[in-house]
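Bug #77: duplicate submission created two jobs. Keeping one. Sequence:
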Amino acid sequence: MTYYGYMGKRLDIDLINQTTEVRGLSAETLSRWVGGKGLAAHILLEEVHAGVDPLSPENYLVFAVGPLTGTLAPLSGRMIVGTKSPQTGIWVDSNAGGFFGPELKRAGYDVVVLKGKAKSPVTILLENGKVSFHPADDLWGVDTEETHKRLKAKFGGEDYRVACVGPSGEKMVPMSAIIAEMRAFGRAGVGAVMGSKNVKAIVAHGNQTVKIFDPEAFLFNNKEAYNEIAIHPDTGGGRQRFGTNVIYSAMNELGIHPVKNFQSSVNPHAEALSEDTMREELVVKDKACFGCPIACSKYSTVKKGKYTGEYSEGPEYEDTWGFGSQCGNGDYGAVITAEHLCDRYGLDSVSTGNTIGFAMECFERGIISEKEVGYDLSFGNTDAMIHMIHQIGKAEGLGKLLGHGTKKAAAALGQGAETFAMQVKGLELPAYDPRAAYAMGLAYATSDRGGCHLRSWPIAMEALQNHGRYDPYSIEFKAEYVKNEQDLVAIVDSVGLCLFATFALTARQLVRLLYSATGLEAFKETQDVLLTGERIYNLTRLFNQREGVERDTLPPRLLNEEMPDGPAKGNITPLQDMLAEYYLIRGWDEQGRPTQEKLKELGLA
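Kept job's structure:
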């Protein structure tokens, strides 16, 4: 079989015996699951048994690229890591860009599956269809930044791309990330699973090429896509200048940006942490992932204040929130320091910032005392915030508990802490308060990996492109919008493109890219591809249902406590009516379980 858009190979690595097996991927499998997220979900549901301990050797860690990864398509540097999460106990796929995904594909593989547990720390080198194992005892305990430097020097330079865990992943801190070329596979603990397998790093290098089904059409479709991205006011304008922080001021003005663990929507530090402040005082240069004309990464250094000299490949909007207003902080230097520390330890920065803000509210309420912690954990204490990141990364002191996330920490602390643990299904919420944008609440509640804005981001229509139809304080049209976007994003995460592509390109344009690259008949029509996205989203729902997920909900604060201030003052999130409509549109029952009729329609029963 000739593969177009794919390498056509799945690599299984038995870590216990340090053996490998290469399997071919059939056209039927690729047509049903595409790649990336879809293929990983299929493998995990079929081959990992229900109830498996996420940190046991029986769990899989799946690295999967898509058919557009590493091609000429714009924003095609993406890939996913899929597994059962040690933080949430359910499905997680974590998506990252940069250069590791394209290099993994050039090394010869569409999917790499890690099984078992190595007897001692190991680095795996994938190079042009060959696999070798290298002792990593000397790297155990080394941070991710230094690990990259040493492995590149060892194997041959910058063209050798690295994905590794830091000290937190080695200690199996449940909110640990995998850091690849300073891009993060964050959220829900994929780094802890990699650490549990005694794998310090995977290094990829190759020069194999990706064949394209219809090169002429593919080039034409790419030209159209690049033009659309260039003329769009976000991807060709604001995001190029400010990165993900392009929305910072708008979120503040609309009362969507949470303050002090979602206790307020009025941010006293809005100007100090604005996108203009970032650009004027911190940004040194713009950086881009593979094949990306946007260059949303803003390499920044701190030039004044107590954190002078610190740097990061951000700051990202979520981190400006998480280590800014979430923790009552207005010092951008502290934000950049915190973000850089998370990268070095290998921590998911969204969960880390959210959890520290939660701990600060516990301190404010007297649930945590200074005597217990050893220092003042008040909102605004940046020294305490930085210290807590070290404790979480090292699994020491209170950080050992907080590293499990707010759901488990709240259960251990008690005294009502569960009511203001800002998480869904055990995963911490990011920087949007759904009391000011109702559909975001539905998107949080129904996300397949827990509290997440990257399965559906209705903020774009509720707040940033509001033409009257999507009133942020109305439930009308919200269920349909969230469902449709989740299906589309499932495809985007499977083909290997960045989500930002959807800001400028239509579904039809994405499908034209996919079909001209692969030539698979299943990818020829937009409606068929979107149905595949629906199939993938239902597949992860089945995975979660198998692991005990029940009817979706939100944190009590968002359902019961009125917004105390700002433009959305007096609002709560009207989840139940939106949820009932969403289940109906999805073809799920009243408890959120896919019906037999829906499963048959999607070819899942």
